[in-house]
């Protein structure tokens, strides 16, 4: 048995909580290892010193104070349901408005895209950069097909 495992189980060994074979392994290890034996004695002295301390009884309201600290802040359940319902209504209205306005149909937006392209990039047409304009429109159409605008 190695020291790490023996040290981990020292308290259980002293409290006689280990099975026979594991207790025997720790006993054999303690007979051979001075550092683990010293640690066991140190732990034993610490427990004895703790036993000498007076036991303080909590007052009658200590449990209530403890439990009150542990309770999460209450959010009104009605408020949660109202927020969820409002979100669902807004989501439904938004999707209906998007569908009716034609935003989901990229072909209906082509005049708007052309106007936006020429207003944002007037140099494209004047500089003869037709390839740039085609590339920009291809990117714009790709964004529409993925749902981004």
Q: Give the structural class.
A: mainly alpha
Gross morphology: elongated
Total number of helices:
9
Order of SSEs: HHHHHHHHH
The N- to C-terminal Cα distance equals 66 Å
Portion in beta strands: under 5%
What are the low-pLDDT stretches, counting only 5+ consecutive residues below 50?
none
How confident is the prediction overall: mean pLDDT? 76
Largest sheet: none
Number of strands: 0
The level of helicity is over 70%
Whole-number total of structural domains: 2
Rg measurement, Å: 38 Å
What features would you describe in this structure?
- With 149 residues, the chain is mainly α.
- The protein has 2 domains: 3-52, no CATH class; 77-145, no CATH class.
- It is 72% helix and 0% strand.
- The protein has 9 helices and no strands.
- The mean pLDDT is 76.
Annotation keywords:
149 residues; mainly alpha; 2 domains; 9 helices; elongated
Secondary structure layout:
Blueprint: H1 3-8, H2 10-14, H3 20-32, H4 34-52, H5 62-70, H6 77-101, H7 110-120, H8 123-126, H9 130-145
How would you summarize this macromolecular structure in one to three sentences?
With 149 residues, the protein is mostly helical. It is built from nine helices and no strands.
